[in-house]
Predict the structure.
Amino acid sequence: MRLVCKGLSGKALIVALAMGWLGQAGAQQVAPGASEAHDQAIERAKAVYEAASARCDALAGTPHDICEAEAHAVRVRSEEEAGAAYKNTLSAYTRARIRIAAAYHERDKTRCSALGGNDREVCLQQAKATLVAAQADARADRKAIEARLDAREEKLTAEYRVALQKCDAFAGAVKDQCVSTARTAYGK
């Protein structure tokens, strides 16, 4: 497995997920229609898997096993991405990336079974290294995003304190209005 996700390079996917997560960090609610979209994505994944599996039935032996493993990996990917999008949490996206990597690892192990001797051992080691790297990247990205979110929160809190300090220059209703404006602006 060279890339865990088709269409995007590994780094582009990480950036896209991080930016999407940071942009939606405050709104972790299920969007209207998300349940239906999730169900439709699961049904599409099932249909694609069944069609691919049917094509695999025309094959025999190792090519059949590889075809089935590929179809399974694609289904896992589709289902995990749909589930993560539905839940819309950082842990869901991280868990999805880890499960997708594991599914593609199984596919790669199946491909390696067609080889023999040292080539097979090298292939298996490469598959394991790719799995470990993908899972480590997913966990590291989660920690980096969490750190950015924590930093953002600390910055907002510091800016809020500055705004409140500026309000101390006023008195009475003007000060109350200033404090109210600061609370609204910083979501406190």
